[in-house]
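Customer escalation, tier 2.

The customer says the design service returned an amino acid string that "doesn't look like it belongs to this structure." They asked us to rerun it and document both sides in this ticket. The original C-alpha cells are below, unchanged.
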C-alpha cells in the first residue's frame, strides 16, 4: 500500500501569492501574481481600469496595449488570477500602477448581478440589501463593516487574553433559560423540550469557580417580538465574568479599559476601514456614571416605562451627557430589582435596587452588567421569593452550595456596538445575516 503525506509547511504559493498593496510597493518594476474578483471595469479611450477586489483592498489595474488578453473575455464578478508589472507612477495615489499582462479566468458569473454593488453607496432598500445579502456584502463599504467587526473581536481577545481571562465555549442548547420567561425559543429534543440559550450567564458564573476570569464571544437567542431598528432575535454577545470581585464599579472600570484598548487596536490595524466608513473613534480615559433614579429625574421626561429607560430616554440622556461632558458613553447604575434577573445582587442599603449597570453609547444601550449573588442562602431565598422552580436550577445552584467567590460580569451586544460605532441607521446593517421576527433567510 502506497501512503502519501500532507505537509504542514505552507509555502508562499499556498495562498496563490496574493500580495497586499503594502507588499506591492516593494516590487516596483517587477511582475507579480494576484487573484481576486473583478469588481468594476471602467473603459476609457485606448485603455481601461480594471478594479480587482482582494480580501481587504480594491486594487486598481490598467488594461492596455501591454495586456496579452482580450478585455471582452472578462466580466464583473469574474474570479481571476492575473500577472501584472508594478509600474512606478508618481501621479498615482500609491506611487505605482499595476499594468495587466496576463489573466486567467477561474470562474465567471452566468448572469448579471441583480443589484449594482461597485458604487460607493448601495442605492437600495434595507430589505433588498438583505434579500441579496450574499451579493450585497461584496460592496466595498458593506464588507468593511464586517472587517471592522472582526477587528473589534480581535481587539477584545487581545485585551482580555493579556489580562489572564480564559476564553470559554458554552452550550447553546439547554433545559432552561438564564433570563426565563417569554423570550425563550423552545424546540423538541429527543422526547423532551429544550431551549436555545438566551445568554451563557449560568455557565460563565460556574466557570469563575474554575478559571476566575472568563469570556465568550458567541450567539444568543431572544424570542422577543420586537420589530425595531435595534432588535435582533439572534445576536452575538460578548460575555465577560470576573471572580473575586471587590465591587460592581470594578466591572465598569474593566469595560472602560477594554473599550479604550479596542479603539487603540482598531486605530492601529484598521485605518483603511475606518477611513472608508468615515468612523470617528471616541477617545475614552473615563466614562461618566449616573444612578438610574437620578437619570430619570435628570431627564424629566414622561415615559410609561418606570423601571427601565425607554429608547427615547436613552437617546436624550446620551445627548445631554455629551453636551455637558463631551463623553459619548454613559454608565447608568442601580437599576430597580424588579427589572433585573434573579441572580442580580441587591443593594444592601436599598433592596429595591440592584448593584447593576447599563452602558449607553451614542443613544443606545450596548451593555448590561452587574454583581451576582454568591451566597447560597441569599440566592435560594430569592428564588423561592420569586416562585421559581429550584429543581430546574439544581446544577446552577451547585456553585453557591459548594462555594463561589464574589463575582460579576457584563454582556456587550456586538451588533449594537458596531451599529453605534459606524452610526448605521439599523442594527441589521451591523449583522452579517440578520435573524428577526420576519427573516430566516438567506
Amino acid at each position: 500500500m502506497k501512503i502519501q503525506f500532507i505537509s504542514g509547511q505552507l509555502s508562499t504559493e499556498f495562498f496563490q501569492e496574493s500580495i497586499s498593496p503594502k507588499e506591492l510597493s516593494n516590487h516596483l518594476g517587477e511582475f507579480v501574481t494576484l487573484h481576486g474578483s473583478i469588481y468594476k471595469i471602467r473603459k476609457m479611450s485606448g485603455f481601461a481600469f480594471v478594479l480587482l477586489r482582494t480580501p481587504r483592498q480594491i486594487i486598481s489595474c490598467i488594461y492596455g496595449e501591454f495586456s496579452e488578453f482580450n478585455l471582452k473575455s472578462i466580466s464583473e464578478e469574474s474570479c481571476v488570477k492575473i500577472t501584472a508589472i508594478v509600474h512606478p507612477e508618481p501621479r498615482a495615489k500609491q506611487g505605482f500602477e499595476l499594468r495587466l499582462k496576463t489573466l486567467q479566468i477561474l470562474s465567471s458569473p452566468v448572469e448579471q448581478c441583480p443589484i449594482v454593488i461597485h458604487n460607493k453607496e448601495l442605492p437600495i432598500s434595507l430589505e433588498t440589501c438583505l434579500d441579496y445579502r450574499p451579493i450585497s456584502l461584496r460592496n466595498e463599504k458593506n464588507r468593511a463593516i464586517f472587517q471592522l467587526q472582526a477587528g473589534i473581536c480581535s481587539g477584545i481577545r487581545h485585551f482580555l487574553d493579556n489580562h489572564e481571562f480564559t476564553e470559554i465555549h458554552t452550550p447553546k442548547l439547554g433545559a432552561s433559560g438564564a433570563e426565563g420567561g417569554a423570550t425563550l425559543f423552545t424546540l423538541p429534543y429527543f422526547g423532551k423540550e429544550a431551549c436555545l440559550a438566551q445568554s451563557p450567564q449560568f455557565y460563565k458564573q460556574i466557570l469563575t469557580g474554575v478559571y476566575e476570569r472568563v469570556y465568550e464571544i458567541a450567539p444568543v437567542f431572544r424570542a422577543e417580538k420586537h420589530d425595531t431598528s435595534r432588535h435582533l432575535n439572534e445576536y452575538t454577545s460578548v460575555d465577560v465574568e470576573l471572580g473575586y470581585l471587590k465591587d460592581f464599579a470594578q466591572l465598569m472600570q474593566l469595560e472602560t479599559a477594554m473599550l479604550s484598548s479596542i479603539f487603540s487596536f482598531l486605530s492601529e490595524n484598521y485605518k483603511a476601514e475606518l477611513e472608508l466608513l468615515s468612523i470617528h473613534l471616541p477617545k475614552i480615559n473615563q466614562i461618566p456614571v449616573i444612578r438610574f433614579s437620578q437619570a430619570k429625574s435628570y431627564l424629566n421626561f414622561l415615559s410609561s416605562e418606570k423601571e427601565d429607560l425607554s429608547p427615547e430616554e436613552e437617546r436624550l440622556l446620551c445627548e445631554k451627557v455629551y453636551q455637558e461632558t463631551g463623553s459619548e458613553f454613559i454608565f447608568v447604575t442601580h437599576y430597580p430589582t424588579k427589572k433585573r434577573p434573579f441572580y442580580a445582587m441587591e443593594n444592601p442599603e436599598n433592596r429595591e435596587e440592584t448593584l447593576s449597570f447599563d452602558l449607553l453609547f451614542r443613544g443606545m444601550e450596548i451593555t448590561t452588567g452587574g454583581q451576582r449573588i454568591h451566597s447560597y442562602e441569599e440566592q435560594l431565598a430569592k428564588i423561592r421569593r420569586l416562585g421559581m422552580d429550584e429543581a430546574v436550577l439544581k446544577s446552577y445552584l451547585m456553585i453557591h452550595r459548594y462555594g463561589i467567590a464574589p463575582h460579576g460580569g457584563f454582556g456587550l451586544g456586538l451588533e449594537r456596538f458596531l451599529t453605534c460605532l459606524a452610526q448605521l441607521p439599523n442594527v441589521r446593517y451591523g449583522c452579517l445575516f440578520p435573524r428577526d421576527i420576519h427573516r430566516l433567510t438567506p
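Tier 2 assessment: The sequence is consistent with the input. DSSP finds twelve helices and 18 strands in the chain. The chain has a mean pLDDT of 93. Sent an explanation to the customer and offered a walkthrough call.
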